[in-house]
Amino acid sequence: MLEKKNYANGQATHKMDGDILTYFFKTGKIKAQGEYVNEQMQGKWMFYRESKGDENKLWQIGHFVDNAKHGNWQRYSKTDEIEYDEDFENGKKL
Q1: What mean pLDDT is predicted for residues 44-63?
Q2: What's the total number of domains in the chain?
Q3: Among 14, 50, 59, 79, which residue has the least CB neighbours within 10 Å?
């Protein structure tokens, strides 16, 4: 999962800081961020939509247990409206 280190422009694809893994777009803006323990996504993760402004817009927020969606997940549209609000257990939608 963490093989590629840099984009062609030299920007890092990801960075580990303790147990927090951050993925970047090639522009350097944050693409996704959350806990990464024992090579698995755990806990709360936030995913961002790349935008032209200074900050990227929140796209999805939810929780993982051992790389599987678990708990509440919300996805937002480009206009910040909730597109869906769903619950998962062990990667399966309830």
Answers
A1: 90
A2: 1
A3: 79
